[in-house]
Amino acid sequence: MTVTSPAPQGTAAGETEPAKAKKGGALKKILVLLVVLLVMGGATYAFALKPHHKQAPKPGEVVKLDPIQVNLQGGHYLKIGIALQLTADAKEVDGSKALDATIDEFSGRDMDTLTRPDTRSKLKQQLEKELKHGYDGEVMGVYFTDFVTQ
What we know:
Order of helices and strands: HEEEHHHE
Mean pLDDT: 84
Strand content: 15-25%
Radius of gyration: 35 Å
Low-confidence stretches: none
CATH superfamily of the largest domain: Band 7 domain
Shape: elongated
CATH architecture of the largest domain: 2-Layer Sandwich
Number of strands: 4
C-alpha cells in the first residue's frame, strides 16, 4: 500500500515550490523592464519631442533701408522701400540680404496683382519669413516704407 501525501497548501497538484518561484521572478523582471521603458519614453518625450515654448523676442531698433526699383511684368516697375524691425539682442545687420530677398520676392510679378491688398500682405509675410530665416532670428518684422508701381 502506498500512501501519497497531500499537496502542500498554496500549490497546485504536481507543481513544486521552485517552479512557482521561477514564475514570480519572471513576472518581476517583466514589470521592472516595463517601468524602465516607460521612464525612458517619458524622458525622450520631455526632452526631444515636446514642443518648447519660446518667449517672443523683444523689439529693438528699426533699420530703414534705401528704396530700390524692381522690374515687373510688361515693362512696369516697382519702387519699394523696406524697414527691418530687429530684435533687442540683434547685432548690427547688413541690409544687402534683405534687399536681395526683396528683389527675389517681387521681381517679375504682375503689377495688377501687387496693387491688391491681400496679395501684398501675403508677399510681405513671405518676405518676413525669408528674412527671419536669413538673419537667424535677428529680424522680427518688415515694414514697407515705399511701395509705388508704374
